[in-house]
Amino acid sequence: MVPNRWTPCALADVTKWSSGGTPSKSNPDYWGGDIPWISAASMRGHYFSSSELAITELAVSEKAKMAEQGTLLLLVRGSMLWNKIPVGITTRRLAFNQDVKCIAPISTKLDIYFLLYWFLAKENKLMGMVTGTGIGAGKLDTNDLQSLHVLLPPLPEQRKIATILSTWDKAISTTERLIDNCKQQKKALMQQLLTGKKRLLDDSGKPFVGEWVNVAIGDVVELFNGFAFKSSDALEMGCKWLKIANVGIGEIKWKDSSYLPENYQSEYKKYFLKVGDIVVAMTRPTLGNQLKISRLKRRSDESLLNQRVAKLVFSDKVSCEYMYQLLSTIEVALKLNSALLGTDPPNLNAKVLHEIQMKMPPLVEQQKIAAVLTNADQEIELLEKQLADLKQEKKALMQQLFTGKRRVIVDEKEVA
Known about the structure:
It is a single chain. The chain contains 12 helices and 24 strands. It has helices at 11-14, 57-61, 112-121, 123-128, 142-146, 155-193, 264-267, 320-327, 330-340, 350-354, 363-401, 412-415; strands spanning 7-10, 15-19, 31-38, 47-48, 54-55, 66-67, 72-75, 77-78, 87-90, 94-96, 100-105, 131-132, 138-139, 149-152, 213-216, 221-225, 239-242, 259-260, 272-273, 278-281, 293-295, 303-305, 309-314, 357-360. It has a 5-stranded mixed beta sheet with strand order 2-11-7-9-4. β12 and β13 (138-139) form a beta hairpin. α6 packs antiparallel against α11 (363-401) and α8 packs across α11 (363-401). The radius of gyration is 27 Å and the shape is elongated.
């Protein structure tokens, strides 16, 4: 059922589409100018005004493809399409390549910001339309896109919908910046506290004193390796099965979950992971100079430990939370990378990790340091949950606004 005063139409009826191009790379006079040239690599966010590559006025004069300010750019070819649909509005006149379509309203009944959010609301549908090119890239067929149907509310209502959603975007951006700031602050704290450059106060209110001592990680940590469960034992549901792909940097990732029979939890009791356990990837153990190490934070993370993932078992001489923070540092990852250089795939073994030497304070100071850094982690986790909630709420709101299930109130002045 079409909402009152809304008009159904095909996208082709209200928009004009044009294709981009690439000026000859063999002509240096076309490149190095100040006119942005948008390609997939430049399509970050939803507003485009700059790019890594830029062209000259000469390239424009010789028919480089241009998009006017206030038009929409949509990526229609590239490997990025398998993961998301890059789309956004140009905030200045610029050029774009052949993998991108420029979409401009041809009707006064269509607001460009409404169109942007309409595309964002349809991302799942668009991703379902992506087909392969035979060389690993994805593509969207222009005719299929233009035949998509859109429900157009009156222009004032379109603008109101876009304004509401832009408010959500601002809240999301603000939260993302807060997360980035908290992560940078935590990184700085780790550099100071885990090296002894900054000493915390003891229970009497005085700074900790005394020299830290060199300790081999193997003296305080043991690796307990997972079990080689059979792939044939896998089920659609059951007890979660923690594999190497599930271990990220500071997080357990369950996007691709596997399961084993529920009775394995008791049958393989010593391999069952519980909240608070810390695991590390044993194959390709580092990424971007960080160790793939994570703590099980919630009951839903509890799972059976697979081979090539190890649980860390700590001696009572150290704080396990302190060691978790210490093993998460760039310094540890760099030492591991150096030891694993030349192995393919790089595999972590107990000997490599055990031989790494790190300066450590006494247990009481470790516990104080761990408490500060754990609090920083919890603050980041709280913000990340708020961000996920905001994104989910915005997604649900878009579905309601673009179907007319939820109508917005438009001031009479706006209608006039």
